[in-house]
Design goal:
Elements: H1 3-15, H2 20-33, H3 38-56, H4 82-135, E1 143-145, E2 149-152, E3 155-161, E4 166-172, E5 178-185, E6 191-197, E7 207-215, E8 218-230
Parallel strand pairs: 2-8
Antiparallel strand pairs: 1-3, 3-6, 4-5, 4-7, 7-8
Length: about 230
């Protein structure tokens, strides 16, 4: 994200797609605060994938299939006597019996293979459902980051859950000094999330940085490693 993000917003504003007021606000917030919420980022990405990327795709050339010409074979000449007719009838009937027998055997083999494959699929699905029921969904932590380490310029995604309607998030440097704070709203399901760009004032030191979530006198923390040098 960065220049590409603002370029996409400019392209959407120029093309007239999306909410002009919301796109302008997202661009202004990103340029001034270097911060954008997950809902706004998803809104821009959905417009880009719907209008900008689809317009850039080129149509594939139609594939021309050449139909081979059928060779016209003249019909055989009529038999001259009864003995030749019987001989021709015998020669023609024997291959037909073999072909029909081969087709019947092939159909039987295909039917058996289909039944065996269906049984295997049902067994695998049943085992997966049992495993899913035993494991269950993993609980959401009170506060966490999407990665354990970041470099200068990376985007940090902070998420978690809280019982109150709002919670205060903060980041402290290795010396315990607060370098960033934000008040975020908690959704109806108790979850919250936000994005932070690693870098700027207070991000000069390398080491472990602490993310703190405070709500109703209850504090939760998590840590991540930060490298003040830009990622390669």
């Amino acid at each position: 994200m960065g220049q590409f993000f603002t370029d996409d917003i400019d392209a959407l504003l120029k093309s007239g797609h999306g909410d002009y007021g919301r796109l302008s606000r997202i661009k202004t917030d990103f340029e001034t605060k270097k911060l954008v919420t997950i809902d706004d980022r998803r809104y821009v990405e959905s417009l880009v994938s719907r209008y900008l990327q689809s317009a850039a795709q080129t149509e594939k050339p139609e594939r021309i299939v050449k139909i081979p010409e059928k060779r016209i074979v003249p019909p055989p000449s009529p038999p001259t006597n009864v003995s030749e007719t019987r001989y021709q009838k015998t020669v023609v009937e024997k291959p037909i019996e073999k072909v029909n027998g081969g087709r019947k055997m092939k159909n039987v083999v295909i039917s058996i293979a289909s039944v065996v494959f269906a049984v295997l699929i049902i067994s695998v699905v049943a085992m997966n459902q049992d495993n899913i029921g035993m494991i269950g969904p993993s609980p959401t932590k009170a506060v966490e980051t999407d990665q354990a380490a970041y470099a200068k310029g990376d985007i940090i995604s902070i998420s978690g859950n809280a019982e109150s309607a709002i919670t205060e998030l903060s980041i402290s440097d290795p010396d315990g000094q607060k370098i960033w704070t934000e008040i975020v709203k908690v959704k109806a399901d108790g979850k919250f999330s936000t994005l932070v760009i690693a870098g700027g004032n207070g991000w000069e030191k390398a080491g472990k940085y602490t993310v703190t979530s405070s709500a109703d006198g209850k504090t939760e923390t998590t840590v991540f490693d930060f490298n003040p040098n830009e990622a390669p």
